[in-house]
Specification:
Number of helices: 8
Structural class: mainly alpha
Distance between the termini: 47 Å
Mean pLDDT: 80
Strand order of the largest sheet: 1-2
Low-confidence stretches: 6-11
Amino acid sequence: MESMKPVFRKLEPLPGKSAFAFEVGEKFYGVALPVLDRLAAGLEEGAENAAEAGAALGVAVTNLGFALEMYLKSLRLLVGVEVPENHDLWVLYKNLPIEVKASLEKRYTELVAQRDPTTLLTLSFVVEAAEEGRSQKPEFPKKDPVKKDVPNLLRRAGRLAVTWRYPHDSVPLGDRYLPVQNFEHSHLRLFHDALVEEIRARHPRPSA
């Protein structure tokens, strides 16, 4: 069977629709922010807060994923690139115009460089899905260094909202624990900040 490659046609910039998409993204981010801020308290306290958050953590990460999706769609509308019916952050990002990606990645790199590396957190979670089950508590794998540039970050986090919205889909029937989930908290939030800066620079009042 022949594989189908998506083709996106060029559109005229649509600042009005872009502003609406941006505003929806802001609402999603506003829901996520209280829990995300609790995770940013530091490695030990942030991990404890994550454990206490329970299902609220899944809601927060899901809404962060939706926010990033809407911001990327807002940016696509603003620069005149068709918006596909897709939730994957990497799909929405990878065929933006080269100069747009270069500008956005520069903003992100600068924001990362301004941070103390010891405050950049990635949290790994195991969630107990049932009181009893046949699976043993999974061990956290040894973390190998991963590239934190925008393309690699979004390849890993592309299906962020889907993965965290339907965690039960990852649990085989009868198992007790979800597989280990990684959440690149700090870098995804810095990408969020860079994305908002990029949109505002191109359309100073995106929520107007």
